[in-house]
Amino acid sequence: MNYHQYYSLDVLNGEGTRCTLFVAGCEHQCKGCYNQSTWSVNSGHLFNQALEDKIISDLNDTRIVRRGLSLSGGDPLHPANVSSILSLLTRIQLECKGKDIWLWTGYKLEQLNDKQREVLCFVDVLIDGKFEKSLADPGLVWRGSLNQNVHRFKGDKEGRI
Length: 161
Description:
Elements: E1 2-10, E2 18-23, E3 45-46, H1 49-60, E4 68-72, H2 82-95, E5 100-104, H3 114-120, E6 125-128, E7 149-152
Parallel strand pairs: 2-4, 4-5, 5-6
Antiparallel strand pairs: 1-2, 1-3, 6-7
């Protein structure tokens, strides 16, 4: 998996102070996308153990209270990213107790394949759907266009898949 940007402190992409990772790779290529540079899976930088360790360290840093990790892109659920995302989220669940996960994807919830749905076991908030320029509304919270949905998952994984 490749990534474009990692922010150890972010207050724009989800509730509270967070860490945010923008991954590379997006099949949707929405007209009007603000992050077109992330579309190619080969763009950006290789996601490696050092960055994964930094994310874990940042999430556990007690000097700043971070609510969790936000995953955007590109698309974290792009087929080229799913295995790496699953590995990262598994580690966060084990080593970073109480942190929530937000994830933006161009896929609709009902379109997800079995492997992509595995990721949802770790996700607290999913924003789904392609950005539709004709439905864009700058007043929306956490999403860019009216067709996108904010799914807040509570309870066990049964409600997520």
